[in-house]
Amino acid sequence: MINKIYNEDCQEGIKRIPNASVDCILTDPPYLYLKGQKLERPFDEQSLFLEFARVLKPNGFVVLFGRGTSFYRWNTILSELGFSFKEEVIWNKSYITSPLLPLLRVHETISIHCVGKGKINRCKIPYIEAKCNDIDSILADIKRLRTILHNPKSLKEVENFLINNTASYKENKKHGYHATAQTGFMGEDRCAAVSRAMTNGCTERSIIRTDLYKNEKSNKNNLHGDMMIGDRACNVMSSIEAGTSEKSIIKQARDHYSAIHPTQKPVRLIERLLALVTQPGDVVLDPFSGSCSTAVACINNNRKFIGFEIDKEYYDAGIHRINETLKDLKLVV
């Protein structure tokens, strides 16, 4: 059943999945609030969630999209079945999906549950991806970076670029900075040197300082018990070099102009959720596959998938989407 999408009712199809064979169930069930829509098919929640418990491996996860009374009920059922609640994630959609409601909705809620004592993975998100929609935060980081640079003019130019969407080539050239294929917009300067030092460590010098480490009793301003925490500027440099830790509010744009399903989730959002609860090679089940975003995310990140979609139109569109993803490979679904 691995790496297949089945055009059938998930409540029947899931019965064929062996016990304790799935690492993660990531799904977006019908919320049952869109009256008259074909995708709003009621399902036996108690029976299906019992199947979740059966097919999941020890320490396996359920990642569940939802909203309103249905979402509250689903979380309650999972708790009553012995699942442990682990985390709540908010998807900041950055656009309004319910313009007629008195409270305009720009988010969706995701709950993470597990069987046993599963642990959420610590994930790093590339700095630009994490902050691309938050220019004010980037500007604040640039100001912090100036504190560790002897010559901050290159950062000032980046700040001007962010604020005015323009860059002064004349100023760059005057200060000795120029764009190259290897070093990018400003060329390599002390930022790169600091970045390398934070990654590889600094060469020992002839004057050795010992005042940057904690004393035996004090724990103030210390990291891991024996190393002083870097100031904010160094933390910023570290996040640029190694990425920033994933947060409980994920701002992720939808897949513009390519949606084939009314509630289609962005593939990148699914990838970020999978990174929190799975490892390469894990098996991921999506009982309500819809546009097959989960399957595409699995293909992109070396996970195996199983999916069910009862609607023939969405099933066909999802299979086409998967095959487009796999067009450079020999395997087609």
What does it look like?
With 333 residues, the protein is α/β, with parallel strands linked by helices. The chain folds into 2 domains: 4-123 and 247-332, 3-Layer(aba) Sandwich (Rossmann fold); 124-169 and 228-245, no CATH class. The chain has helices spanning 10-13, 45-55, 68-80, 127-131, 135-145, 153-164, 169-174, 190-200, 232-242, 267-277, 293-300, 312-325; strands spanning 4-6, 22-27, 56-66, 84-92, 107-114, 124-125, 222-223, 227-228, 244-245, 249-251, 283-286, 304-308. Helix 2 links the parallel strand 2 (22-27) and strand 3 (56-66). Helix 5 (135-145) packs antiparallel against helix 6 (153-164) and helix 8 packs across helix 9 (232-242). It is globular and about 65 Å long. It starts with a strand and ends in an 8-residue tail after the last helix. The relative contact order is 0.17.
